[in-house]
């Protein structure tokens, strides 16, 4: 999620994952601490790793940050097995993770050339947004009213698996939504998985594709505009 400071990146991430016990939210991380928690991704305790401010991992020795970035990059796609300081002859298991992070446009601009050249950028969906009304947060504080970020509801299928249900026509639509992303392959897979989850969740292909099309506004040439609203309970009080 790429947005200027004060655009609620950390808040959106926290509210989206709050009911998922298998999502690990971190403020910072280094190679040693990642190696400590690697087993928790292998055994399924965690499946998602989220950073409210991903830029924090670069605020250290560049070589250390680059090493950590490489391990995270592996965990996102092919799987990460051994750190450089571990015995490479030993048998080990690969750990994989869904990585979510918030970064500022400044960090994105500084790092993107290298991220594209070393393959980091191609493994992620890059979502750009700004608030439609930048004063909404200040006004909510001034009026002492809560903003509404929606509800995060965890549902899982009985057998733990969501089937692949994307039709050829839907697949073509999904492909068209990511034309402006740095690469097609990994992001295409991720978007099709999201489509399957939405179709399973809402039991409606039309609604699922509609949500994806709305979301795709942040994947294009310009940042999407996010409109904040009051908590429904606050709206009732206002009336």
Core attributes:
globular, 239 residues, 7 strands, mainly alpha, Rossmann fold, single chain, 43% helix, two-stranded parallel sheet, 9% strand
Description of the molecule:
This protein has 239 residues and is mostly helical. The protein has 2 domains: 1-124, Rossmann fold, CATH 3.40.50; 131-233, no CATH class. Helix content is 43%, strand content 9%. The protein is built from 9 helices and 7 strands. The strands form 3 sheets. Strands 1-2-3 form a 3-stranded parallel sheet, sandwiched between helices. It has a two-stranded parallel ribbon with strand order 4-6. α7 packs across α8 (205-215). The radius of gyration is 19 Å and the shape is globular. The mean pLDDT is 87.
Condensed summary:
The chain is mainly alpha-helical and 239 residues long.
**Unreliable sequence segments:** none
Shape from CA axes? Answer: globular
CATH architecture descriptor of the largest domain? 3-Layer(aba) Sandwich
What's the number of domains? Answer: 2
From the 3D structure, determine the CATH topology of the largest domain. Rossmann fold
Structural class: mainly alpha
Mean pLDDT equals 87
Q: Biggest sheet, open or closed, and with what strands and sense?
A: 3 strands, parallel
DSSP strand count: 7
Q: What amount of the residues lies in strands?
A: 5-15%
- What is the strand arrangement across the widest sheet? 1-2-3
SS element count, helices: 9
| CATH class category name of the largest domain | Alpha Beta
Gyration radius, in Å: 19 Å
Distance between the termini: 34 Å
Helix content: 40-55%
* Pattern of helices and strands: HEHEHEHEHEHHHEEH
């Amino acid at each position: 999620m790429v947005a200027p400071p004060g655009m609620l990146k950390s808040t959106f991430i926290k509210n989206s994952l709050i009911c998922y016990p298998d999502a690990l939210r971190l403020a910072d991380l280094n190679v040693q601490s990642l190696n400590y928690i690697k087993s928790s991704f292998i055994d399924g305790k965690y499946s998602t790793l989220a950073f409210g401010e991903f830029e924090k991992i670069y605020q250290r020795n560049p070589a250390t940050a680059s090493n950590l970035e490489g391990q995270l990059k592996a965990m996102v796609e092919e799987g990460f097995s051994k750190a450089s300081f571990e015995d490479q002859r030993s048998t080990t298991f690969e750990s994989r993770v869904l990585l979510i992070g918030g970064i500022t446009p400044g960090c994105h601009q500084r790092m993107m050339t290298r991220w594209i050249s070393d393959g980091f950028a191609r493994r992620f969906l890059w979502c750009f947004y700004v608030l439609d009304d930048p004063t909404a947060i200040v006004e909510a504080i001034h009026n002492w009213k809560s903003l509404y970020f929606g509800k995060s509801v965890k549902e899982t299928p009985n057998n733990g698996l969501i089937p692949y249900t994307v039709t050829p026509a839907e697949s073509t639509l999904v492909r068209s939504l990511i034309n402006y992303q740095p690469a097609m392959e990994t992001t295409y897979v991720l978007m099709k998985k999201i489509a399957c989850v939405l179709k399973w969740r809402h039991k409606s292909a039309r609604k699922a594709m509609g949500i994806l099309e709305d979301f795709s506004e942040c994947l294009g040439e310009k940042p999407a505009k996010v409109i904040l609203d009051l908590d429904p309970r606050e709206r009732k009080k206002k009336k």
